[in-house]
């Protein structure tokens, strides 16, 4: 999630330098409840130090109103077809949204 937020920050700053209005906050949809929890509740131990740093980074931009983290169920997350093994019907549902459906032509 911190990598996505870094990309969002870059794009927001780029668009602002081009004098293009950006509606804030930018919605970041995540299907990982643990990552959302860590971005809101900073607790670190020696085993989660690197996670804590990334979480603080995300939390800072959430508090500043630049990004907003939203939960999205896995079955509604279109990017899952690129990161997970999805069932046939679920893969078809997501791929049709991303690529569009091919219409059959009459011969």
Walk me through this protein's architecture.
The protein has 107 residues and is mainly alpha-helical. It has a domain at 2-73. It is 51% helix and 9% strand. The chain has 5 helices and 2 strands, in the order αβααβαα. Strands 1-2 form a two-stranded parallel sheet. The protein starts with a helix and ends in an 8-residue tail after the last helix.
Q: Tally of extended strands?
A: 2
Please tell me how large the radius of gyration is.
18 Å
Tally the helices: what do you get?
5
Reported for the largest beta sheet, the result is:
2 strands, parallel
Q: What spatial form do the alpha-carbon principal axes imply?
A: flat
Query: Structural class of the secondary structure composition?
Result: mainly alpha
Distance from first to last alpha carbon: 48 Å
Which residues sit in consecutive blocks of at least 5 with pLDDT less than 50? none
- In oligomeric terms, what are we looking at? single chain
Overall mean pLDDT score?
A: 80
Please report which band the strand proportion falls in: under 5%, 5-15%, 15-25%, 25-35%, 35-45% or over 45%.
5-15%
Order of helices and strands: HEHHEHH
What strand order characterises the main sheet?
1-2
Provide a short characterization of the protein structure:
Helix content is 51%, strand content 9%. The chain is mostly helical and 107 residues long. A two-stranded parallel sheet has the order 1-2.
Give the topology, please.
Layout lengths: L1 H16 L8 E5 L2 H8 L8 H15 L3 E5 L8 H4 L4 H12 L8
Parallel strand pairs: 1-2
């Amino acid at each position: 999630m911190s990598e996505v937020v870094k990309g969002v920050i870059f794009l927001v700053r780029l668009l602002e330098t081009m004098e293009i209005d950006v509606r804030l906050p930018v919605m970041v949809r995540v299907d990982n409840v643990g990552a959302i929890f860590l971005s809101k509740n900073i607790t670190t131990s020696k085993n989660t130090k690197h996670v804590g740093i990334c979480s603080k980074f995300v939390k800072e931009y959430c508090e500043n109103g630049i990004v907003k983290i939203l939960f999205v169920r896995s079955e509604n997350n279109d990017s899952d077809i690129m990161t997970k093994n999805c069932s046939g019907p679920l893969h078809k549902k997501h791929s049709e949204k991303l690529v569009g459906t091919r219409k059959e032509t009459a011969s």
